[in-house]
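Example S7 (structure tokens).
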């Protein structure tokens, strides 16, 4: 067995090891940090960036045949950035959805609705499910993810606005 010639070096190296272990362990604690991005389905990263009102105008345009609008827009993923949460947005949280301008947005995770707070800015990503049955000229979205603005780089790639060309 090898004999240590310097007990001070042993104590120092042990102290350093414990200190390093403490630093690493504190960084890997089970506490959830506040800046974790919620789960976003991978297909949502390729969504189309647009304003809710602009999307509704394209969908309900008198120049867009309804069948074409449904074929072109239904099931597509859209991203709304920097939406301010208002009292009107929060009025329907208990009903399981929120209003994002003229969009009735149902969440992917219903618990996310309770995390929204008045006057914060959010990004909303979801799938167009069709026209809203309750209110004319509005749309229904399903599987929506609500993110604090600029917590995720959305969309990835081409973020050009929707351009609809009617079929003749």
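Recovered sequence:
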């Amino acid at each position: 067995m090898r004999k240590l010639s310097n007990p001070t070096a042993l104590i120092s190296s042990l102290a350093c090891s414990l200190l390093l272990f403490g630093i690493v362990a504190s960084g890997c604690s089970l506490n959830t940090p506040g800046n974790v991005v919620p789960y976003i389905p991978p297909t949502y990263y390729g969504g189309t960036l647009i304003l809710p009102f602009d999307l509704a105008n394209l969908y309900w345009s008198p120049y867009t045949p309804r069948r074409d609008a449904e074929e072109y827009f239904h099931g597509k993923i859209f991203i709304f950035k920097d939406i301010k949460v208002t009292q009107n947005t929060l009025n329907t949280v208990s009903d399981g959805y929120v209003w994002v301008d003229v969009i009735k947005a149902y969440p992917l995770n219903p618990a996310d609705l309770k995390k929204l707070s008045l006057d914060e800015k959010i990004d909303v990503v979801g799938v167009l499910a069709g026209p809203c049955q309750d209110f004319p000229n509005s749309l229904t979205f399903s599987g929506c993810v609500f993110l604090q603005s600029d917590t995720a780089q959305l969309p990835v790639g081409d973020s050009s606005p929707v351009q609809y060309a009617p079929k003749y």
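Notes on this example. DSSP finds four helices and six strands in the chain.
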